[in-house]
User: What shape does this take?
Amino acid sequence: MGILLARLVDDAALLPPAREPMRTALPAYRTAAGHPLLGRFLCPASRLDELRRRLVPEDLIDLGIIADTGVEHLPTALETVRREPRVRLRSVEISPAPDADQARAAAVVIARLPADLPCLIEVRRMPGWRETLDRLAAARGRGVPLGAKLRTVGTGGDGADGRSNGVTEQPADGAAKRRADGAAANGRAGGEHGPSPAEVAAFVVACAERDLPFTCTAGLHRAVRHVDPATGLAHHGFLNIVVAACRARSGASGPGAVDDAVASTDAIALAEEAAGVDDAAARAARELFVAFGSCDIETPRSDLIKLGLAGEGTVT
Assistant: This one.
């Protein structure tokens, strides 16, 4: 497994929808440790004491804190981690209140953060999202190690209250028809499980334009975009986002290329494009798309094996 996919999957077993108990989630992470696909162990700040009780002397856990107790209690969580030599703090993820002014909330969070703390701030798909990215990028330009986080499940083009969330983009010429044709061919009448391909692509491009790293949370368990037969809803694929990041970084794929990468259901084409990315382009793409959270590592690993991208199998 090369640079493009290494440490791509953060272990989110403690988080919804799995909500695994610590007694099973932490041993599973230990078992998977050393696999090149595996990244951080994501742990809510509210469960750090429980994590410490479950650690063994040999542990050295790459830790991502989910600041579920709020930014005001973050110093306590950081002090807990700093007293624990068996973990290495890699990042903190913060989600401002859903009803807050995003850009202003981001500014407040940034002001409260230690200057050297790698932090990912969730950017919601609602009016002001680009201004929020601007705030994050400006702080990053001053040396604050910030990135953005995109939730890939939940409401799509409309918010929960039915109003536009302000993220929907007009796709490039031809892209809308290609996606509509693909939707008909792939039975996507049930709609989206999360943001639309155009919304995700707009976020990827906006982050690339600002040289702002991002992660994705929830919903990217499978490599390629697909329809869940149980619900009829379309789910995004993590390989789609990887290829989209490659295209966004290269800037040489033409109008609509990032949209098309996010919307594609052609597993073999996506796998072949990913396999052909050289190390320099892969490094640039991963500096943009840092990781995504998954409740287990086996599902993403199995998909990559089937696609011949894990060094353990061939394209089928």
